[in-house]
Amino acid sequence: MNNKREERKRAAIERQIDENLRRVYEQDAVQEVPDRFLALLEQLREQE
Q1: How far apart are alpha carbons 20 and 14 in whole angstroms?
Q2: What is the pLDDT of residues 4-44, one digit of tens each?
Q3: DSSP readout, 1-48?
């Protein structure tokens, strides 16, 4: 019985970790590309 409680507790912790990681990655995905990177990309395109 104690084993099932531990499994549920571990599963809840893993879900919480998954949700937190998903939030972090989603926040990073919507951030804009910094101007300096856009300038570097433009320079590379001009060299081609």
Answers
A1: 10
A2: 999 999 999 999 999 999 988 887 777 788 899 889 999 98
A3: -HHHHHHHHHHHHHHHHHHHHHHHHHHHHHSPPPHHHHHHHHHHHHH-
